[in-house]
Amino acid sequence: MNTKIRRIKKRGFSKTFIIIIAVILNITFSLLMGYWSYSWLPIQASEAAHYVDNLFAFETTIGTFIFLGCTGTMAWILVFNRAPKYDESNGEPLEGNLKLEIIWTIVPLLLVLGISTYSTSVNYKLENLGSKVKYDYGAEAPFIEEKKVFDYGPIDVISRQWNWEFVYPNGIHSSELHLPVDKKSNFRLITEDVIHSFYVPAFRLKQDIIPGSIITYSLTPTKKGVFRLRDAMFSGAYFSENQTNVIVESEEIFYKWIKETVKKELQNGLNPAGSLYQKRLRNGNRGWATVKPAPDPKVNDAGIESRPHDS
Amino acid sequence: MTIVNYDPRLVKSKNPYPKGPNDWKRFFSFNTDAKVIGIQYIVTALFFLLIGGLLAMLIRGELITPPSDLFDPTVYNGLYTMHGTIMLFLFLFPILSGLTNLLVPPMIGAPDMAFPKLNALAFWLVPVFSIILLLSFFVPGGPASSGWWSYPPISIQNPLGKMINGEMLWIIAISLSGISSIIGAVNFVTTIIRMRAPGMGFFKMPIFIWTVLAAQLLQLLGLPALTGGAIMLFFDLTFGTSFFRIEGGGDPVLFQHFFWFYSHPAVYVMVLPVFGIFSELFPVYSRKPLFGYKFVAVASFGITILSLVVWVHHMFYTGTPMWMRNLFMFTTMLIAVPTGVKVFAWIATLWGGNIRLTTPMLFCLGGLFNFIFGGITGVMLATVPVDIHVGNTYFVVAHFHYIIFNTIAFGIFAAIYHWFPKFTGKMFYEGLGKVHFALTFIGATLNWLPLHWAGLLGMPRRVASYDPEFAIWNVLASIGAFILGVASIPFILNMVSSWVRGKSAPPNPWKAIGLEWLLPSPPPHENFEEDIPTVLNEPYCYGLDKPFVEDEQFYIEKSLKKH
After folding, report:
1. Of A71, A82, A207, the CB nearest to B355
2. Residues A177, A114 share a domain
3. What's the rounded Cα separation, in Å, for the pair B482 and B408?
4. How far is A96 from chain B (nearest CA, A)?
5. Is the pLDDT of residue A258 over 60?
6. Which residue stretches of chain B have pLDDT < 50?
7. What mean pLDDT is predicted for residues A188-208?
8. A81 and B356 in contact by Cβ < 8 A?
9. What are phi and psi of A11, to 5 degrees?
């Protein structure tokens, strides 16, 4: 036993008292961390966001408690149990404690059971993923009858190396994704080449788009604004440029946009990879091999590349 | 003493290198001595740590500013692919094979590995596939650049249409690495099962041996899936078959199953021996028995079994149905249970000990600290809704670097320092070791802690450029990466100068309990030679007054005599 601990004991501080104070401090700080964790995440812009953020905050709280509990104990040991110089004597020869070992097997087991039950319930609330249907190479992506009812859609999300194109039910093509706020929109996720991923951080949602399969997906934006849509599955040379904007508008403005855009002529849409590739060719095509970027998409609304985004 | 697996006929093998055991040239030959092979592995792997680290610094150089300005993005993609591949297949796996080779025979009292020639073959495949992989930098079109997952269709696009391309060489290198690891695994498993010293029943084996056994069985169960998948990918790429090509009716998602069926357990193959290292070192430097030896030992196999049924957590957003996501979330989280058993046991081992903060102990404590953090973010990633947001972002990058560098590499450094005197016969410089630890801990924390926030805000992994709102986290990370680069200097200085002119090491400088510490430093070619000790008790009986082997004094005296 270390002298310092003995001194503490002599002064009348019992071990239990110290443990109770430490646990209270730990709980307080863990709750604070859970509260702060909301600020580490982007704006909550979809129905899914607050479920995900609540789960994350819950895990941050529990995680902080465990982390501080373990590392706090380690810190205590490092302060009070250090061997003096040249002291090579043994510590207390504790070989184990069956009761303790059973507790620290059962408690984490119950904890992960709890967390996974909670997450499962969140999964059933979200249910963004619809069906995944394979179709033959080169054939048109089949139309899938959905059992569920949606407020709007389906919007075809077409991903390529490296641009995005959105085709609305009335046939308009757009480089940016316009969505009505608070309406459940339905999507058909299609890729023309490799695997891409439809990822909007502000929505907390991500779905891979698989070649040879059509995946239906739905989500409800809850906040007006401009949010980044990023390809989250590595898709080759200009992968990092494969981004566009999601513009969430009031229903009125959204339908106005639909009506006006349908009258517009088709023009070249956003394709930052295309211009970077042209620049590379002008500079002597240096660098390692890449496939050629897909040609500029032909769209009614070409979008604005440098549009400021909220998140 | 009911279990006697030891076959004395195994002792008598000829000295494999005719010019005497101490010739330096033996390190460059097809030597069959496990201790030589171990050092061959470790030195080769450390060389590739430098190469992989250099690539990491180039990556962080590109990412210190938002636009893609240092390299063409194609070059960036090649660099990060090769960084990951080199760090995993040329640094981590070989260095762990090296430590396993050095430690397993002396720790169980065997003269050598069960199949010395296979052992040498497994090692010599490393330089072969390393050279193939490095040559891929110089083929037209550059090296593989589809990430270390090498997912089709991106990996089989072959833009130049040439038969010999970076991706093809990459697949060959990975397959050879797989074959090397399978050979190694057969050898380790056989050695541990058949060649333990008399009296060393399973529950008297050191935990490191338990974890090696668990990890190597995992290699045998999992690696064939990856190697098979890699061969199919090779056929798709080179001969136009369509296992994963949709044009011929294949499915690219199938590859992801083959890949992750092994590559998730691969993390456990790497981390289990490091758990073993923690379990060896904490008792030594806190001078206490390992708390709950049997629980810790069995927990390794709990991890092995569970790790074979978690791979779909890498595919939560590929269109995996709900029931499957929920199931795999649950199995993934279950791994926290046996892992928690180990973590709590280590902390309980430290509790009330007589802690000595030597360099190896500092690396162990740092590694455990980081592992608790990385384990918690791991549970977060296992929960489907959170994973759907942060999966494939820098949160994942930060998490897995917390495991593979901040835990596994820390454990490896701890092991290198701890057993350095044993296998080189020289002491290292404690001061330089502590500088190495401080720089590594600060650099690693600065490098990977901030990246969690970049990921939470939605910065995808593998990007060559990013939106300016992520800049602050990336600047911090880059500074951390450069500090890590600097940290290699005291390490190299320490290792080289200590080996060349360090103080001679006594047989047991740390006053540790274990068969290897009853041998001279460095141990003779056949370890215990004719006098194989009989093990009486489990290891780690610090302060328990239980002798570890029969006639311990005889071995202590013998080890001093040789010295």
Report:
1. A82
2. no
3. 20
4. 4
5. yes
6. 1-4, 8-19, 563
7. 96
8. no
9. -70, -5
